[in-house]
Amino acid sequence: MFNGFVLLCVLAPVAGLGVDPSLLINVFKDFSPGADFKGVSQVQGFHDESRAYLFQGSSRSVRVPEETAQRMLQKLRGKSEFTVAVTLKQELLNSGVILSIHHAEQRFLELESSGQKSEVRLHFQAKGQQTHTEIFPYTLADNQWHKLSVAISASHVTLYVDCNRIYERVVSVPVMDIPEDTSLWIGQRNSAHGLFKGVMQDVQILVMPQGYITQCPDLNRTCPTCNDFHGLVQKIMELQDILAKTSSKLSLAEERMNGLDNCYCERTCSVKGVTYREDQAWTDGCKNCTCSVGWVLSDFLQGIILIIVSLCACFCAAMCLFTGQELVEGDRRAVHHPSGLCLLYECKQLTVDFSVCPKGHDFCAEGNTCMEHSDCLNLEAGASCSCKEGFRPLRSDNAYCEDIDECAEGKHYCRENTMCVNTPGSFMCICHTGYIRIDDYSCTEHDECVSEQHNCDENALCFNTVGGHSCSCKPGYTGNGTICRALCDGLCLNGGSCVSPNTCMCTQGFTGKRCETDIDECSEGFVECDSRATCVNLPGWYHCECRDGYHDNGMFSANGESCEDIDECKAGRSTCANDTVCFNLDGGYDCRCPHGHNCTGDCIHDNKVKHNGQIWVLDNDRCSVCSCQMGQVMCRRMVCDCENPTVDLFCCPECDPRLSSQCLHQNGLLTYASGDTWTENCQQCQCLQGEVDCWPLSCPPADCDFTLVPEGECCAHCVSDPCQAHSVRNDITKTCEDEHGITRFSGSSWLKHGTECTLCQCKNGHICCSVDPMCL
Q1: pLDDT tens digits for 439-492?
Q2: CA dihedral sign, ordered 556, 559, 564, 568
Q3: What residues does the Laminin G domain cover (predicted)?
Q4: Predicted structure pTM score
């Protein structure tokens, strides 16, 4: 029981270890990379129940066909809970990619094993299209069979090797928004890099976090996954949004209800199914009626009889007959007499009286039948209708008029290089594309190049054409003319950009014509570290690292001031033999012989006694040599003498002269000798005996809540403005209150009330809102 909920764990998808096919991507079942692929052959596997393949050689291209890949990847799209499982035997010291799902430079999911660094690396796409890399120190490349599973459940990742849980970590939530034309590669990243060498069997992706139990049935899931928890949190956030929207609607309804007190309710009259408003008049037979304060009054010649009918008042008026028309009291009609006089007839007391029309009489004001697009004209004998300019009559009395389409009927004055467009009562002459207006009816050719009204790139040439222009990139640039990029021989390395022909602009920390040279900030005096720290140069960067005998106190100061002494004696990190006494020193320790004792000066290393003066090679690192000197163990890397014919090429790859040990840069234009290192896409790469291995650049710790990776750089920097931060170390105790008073947890996001494109996010008590331009 937890907070009122009962958590029940059911392994429905893995009933009897049979996996629902809709949740399983079995790569070697749907795709057979046998004889059709160079460098791949079917061999005996760890077991005989499925096919196994040997991957070898340095020239192969094992890419799953597009149709098959899309069918596989459709099961993974949009998921944040899955397991990658494989049974493998990797060659000793090989570094290669087991499986890679990528689109151009975006790695959505990639599993890699480095024998040179003894690491398992998981690369995946996180929020904001950022590639996240999680490194697990472990040696798979030992020419032995291993069962490997990497289980991901939202922000939780677990590494299993041979049915043992090796690592369990919290990471960024993966985003599997996989495009349609994404590639799926097996045993390599692409046709040139990350070549896995060895045997693979049962390469699977299971869309469930507990997929590892297909390899290890004895392991069983007994607790909810992190994805279950994230789903619950998401539901809570959705309920918060519903509550916010409902609160908004209730507030609006309350405002409207409060406004009802100020409403004016108008009285109306209903007569014969027709509703009339207050003071509205109408004619009913012999009566003129008016709606008045909700009473009906009928006035006949005999008197006034009060009748209450639908709260309406009617008053009968006297009527006259004139040329077959019924006129009520006060109605007037103007008639043009054959003699030329204008006679004005008026209904008065049941009789028609007439007089001569007064000069300038406004007949239009008395009412006319002229409709839209028709004007009323006052004549001597009465009113007349006349169609407005650009319209023609539909009836003989000109009361109704229609638009004349001057363009269709050829009644316009548009000249060459224009297009006639009809408008109500008129027309317009629109210039053709590439022409400018002379007057209302004609246009002439426009030289966009001379007037600089073109869309050519600043590094392109503009050529005027009839009705337009064309663009062509200048020599040394490439592109379509509207966008031109400079060409640099061999391309720019280490994140540098080509700003002009054969000229690279380097990112911070690099220099050289192609930005190929790392600036050693330590040796060139750019950095001054604390005396307890030493400057460590990194590709494009540096940091002050605590010297041996010191460790950081957790403040992570940039210059090493936060380094403090380690008490090796108390921490049990000394190598003093049992016949000596450990005495702590600043930055080290001393093994002192008690007074009156005859001490040997021996050392204790890896729980083994090493005699004073003894020299040995480490068991787990054949390139490091150690010695025991008066109770203290001193270790150093082996000195490489390339002139020595017996030099160990594994420890001294720079001494390997063989062409087969050279490596090709990712751009395919540069070669490196064994032992060379370089930086590519924020990764440190090294060539070792013909194989390229890359791993994320080491960055100094950024011990702060808000961090930002500046453009062109690889390492995060601390920032004070939370709204500028790319990453936030969320503190759930620091909440935000939105515009409806709803409490939001740090890390949650919502659409701002009244908008569709403004997204707000809570960042440790700070609300940051931004408009999505793609939404507008």
Answers
A1: 889 888 878 888 888 889 999 999 888 777 889 999 888 888 988 888 887 677
A2: positive
A3: 51-223
A4: 0.51
Report the percentage of the chain scoring pLDDT > 90: 23
- d(CA 501, CA 490) in angstroms, rounded, equals 11
- 54: helix, coil or strand? strand
Question: Which CA distances in Å does 205 have to 79, 113, 211?
Answer: 12, 17, 8
Structure tokens of 595? Answer: 């007074």
Contacts 24+ apart (CB under 8 A), 306-314: 309/271, 310/269, 310/270, 310/271, 311/267, 311/268, 311/269, 311/270, 312/269, 312/270, 312/271, 312/276, 313/269, 313/289, 314/284, 314/287, 314/288, 314/289, 314/290
Task: Provide the residue type at 76 as one letter.
Answer: L
The average confidence (pLDDT) of the chain is: 81
pLDDT grade, residue 8 (50/70/90)? very low
CA dist 210 and 197 (Å) reads 28
Average pLDDT over residues 746-756: 84
Sign of CA dihedral 626, 629, 633, 639: negative
pLDDT average, residue stretch 360-382 = 81
Torsion of CA 527, 531, 534, 537, to 10 degrees: 0
* HEC string for 445-492: ECCHHHHCCCCCCCCEEEEEECCEEEEEECCCEEECCCCEEECCCCCC
Q: Could you tell me if 24 and 12 are in contact, meaning their C-beta atoms sit under 8 angstroms apart?
A: no
pLDDT in tens, 543-602: 888 998 898 887 777 788 989 999 999 988 888 888 888 999 998 898 988 887 888 889
For the chain, the distance separating the N- and C-terminal CA atoms, rounded to the nearest angstrom, is 47
On the CB side of 99, CA atoms within 13 Å amount to 28
What is the phi-psi region of residue 294: left when phi exceeds 0, alpha when psi lies from -120 to 50, beta otherwise?
A: left
The residue with tokens 């950009």 is 497
Which residue type does 697 have? L
- Of 454, 539, 455, 463, nearest to 494 (Cα)? 539
